[in-house]
């Protein structure tokens, strides 16, 4: 457990590194907790930090050292994939708990290095793979208890996200690493480890030349072999004109589940039931789980820590690597 700051009794003192879209979402949730104090924020783009500070009443810090000088209990790292590494390495030795937005890095080796630093420092961590703490995933997990999963079909069918770094695979990691990791993480949570993957990828969206700066794969299809015997697929595209769906279908001998951003659909004995996914509730549950972990409450949450999220990142990287190499890639859990 990390040492609490002297001020903790007045609430968990929180700082932010990266103040874009997802940081604002976390800040809005935390502002509704009576045991969170939003203290300071820093961003590579100072104007964004100022806008965030104005919206949420924080200080603006020019860099991470100035941020930490506020005596924080916890820091949210809400930067794009390419920016992970030096930030976490600075935070690991600082005696603060760290919430990292997914993915943990743009590649595997940076994420491994960060994880080793957190482990060595004994840092309390959580990663924003919040599907796990949504009601559909938790209910699906209970339904699958004692059942044998035969086949799994994951998908993420979407438009290009509007953030400027996304179309460059060297900065985002591509769609599987940056987005579909939610689906792969849910597959691990509900079905177990994946032992090997084989993937192929299609050319960039848009005019397909990459001349518009969009050089990520426009589509990926992968075959997965689970260690427990199930087989599965993952299909992604970012070339659609709208966000269609992001979900996982799981088939046992007597049950078909569809679980994802639209909720949980269960088909059993000719009957279909549907429960919606309240994403706002899952976002709240994720931030609550982190704050409770920082406060030293027993770990009862299902939100993954950095070491567990790293396993899903390794799987996403293996899919991406297979699409490049054309080979079946073994996944190291
Ligand atoms: N869990 C979820 O549901 C969810 C949802 C949205 C985004 N995300 C993840 O959050 C991350 C950020 O996404 P976003 O939509 O907020 O992006 P964004 O582009 O809106 O914001 C990122 C911010 O980080 C800043 N930044 C970049 N490098 C930095 C550095 N070295 N130090 C400090 N600040 C730096 C940028 O200036 C920008 O303000 C992505 O990895 C994304 O996948 C997760």
TrEMBL record:
> Which residues does UniProt assign to the signal peptide?
none
Q: Which InterPro entries match?
A: Gfo/Idh/MocA-like_OxRdtase_N, Gfo/Idh/MocA_Oxidoreductase, GFO_IDH_MocA-like_dom, NAD(P)-bd_dom_sf
* Xref: SUPFAM superfamilies: Glyceraldehyde-3-phosphate dehydrogenase-like, C-terminal domain, NAD(P)-binding Rossmann-fold domains
What positions does the domain GFO/IDH/MocA-like oxidoreductase occupy? 149-243
Q: Name one GO molecular function term.
A: nucleotide binding
- Pfam families named in the record: GFO_IDH_MocA, GFO_IDH_MocA_C3
- Identify the residues that the record assigns to the Gfo/Idh/MocA-like oxidoreductase N-terminal domain, covering every copy: 13-127
Q: Which PANTHER family match?
A: D-GLUCOSIDE 3-DEHYDROGENASE, UDP-N-ACETYL-2-AMINO-2-DEOXY-D-GLUCURONATE OXIDASE
Put simply, this protein is called Gfo/Idh/MocA family oxidoreductase
Lineage of this protein's species? Bacteria, Bacillati, Actinomycetota, Actinomycetes, Pseudonocardiales
């Amino acid at each position: 457990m990390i040492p609490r700051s002297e001020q903790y009794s007045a609430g968990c003192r929180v700082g932010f590194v990266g103040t874009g879209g997802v940081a604002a979402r976390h800040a809005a949730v935390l502002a509704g907790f009576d045991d969170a104090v939003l203290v300071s924020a820093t961003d590579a783009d100072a104007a964004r930090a100022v806008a965030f500070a104005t919206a949420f009443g924080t200080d603006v810090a020019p860099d991470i050292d100035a941020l930490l000088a506020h005596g924080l209990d916890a820091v949210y790292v809400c930067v794009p994939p390419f920016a992970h590494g030096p930030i976490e390495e600075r935070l690991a030795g600082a005696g603060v708990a760290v919430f990292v937005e997914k993915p943990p890095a743009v590649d595997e080796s940076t994420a491994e290095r960060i994880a080793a630093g957190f482990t060595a420092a004994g840092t309390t961590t959580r990663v924003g793979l919040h599907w796990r703490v949504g009601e559909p995933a938790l209910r699906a997990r209970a339904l699958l208890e004692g059942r044998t999963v035969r086949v799994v079909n994951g998908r993420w069918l979407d438009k290009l996200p509007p953030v400027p770094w996304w179309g460059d695979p060297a900065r985002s990691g591509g769609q599987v690493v940056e987005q579909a990791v939610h689906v792969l993480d849910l597959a691990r949570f509900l079905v177990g480890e994946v032992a090997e993957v084989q993937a192929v990828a299609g050319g960039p969206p848009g005019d397909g030349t990459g001349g518009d700066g969009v050089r990520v794969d426009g589509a990926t299809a992968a075959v997965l072999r689970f260690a427990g015997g199930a087989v599965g697929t993952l299909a992604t595209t970012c070339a659609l004109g709208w966000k269609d769906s992001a979900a996982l279908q799981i088939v046992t001998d007597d049950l078909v589940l569809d679980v994802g951003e639209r909720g949980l659909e269960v088909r059993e004995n000719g009957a279909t039931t549907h429960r919606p996914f309240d994403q706002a509730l899952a976002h709240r549950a994720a931030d609550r789980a982190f704050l409770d972990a920082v406060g030293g409450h027993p770990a009862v949450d299902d939100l993954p820590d950095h070491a567990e999220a790293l396993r899903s990142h390794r799987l996403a990287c293996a899919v991406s690597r297979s699409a490049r190499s054309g080979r079946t890639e073994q996944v190291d859990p």
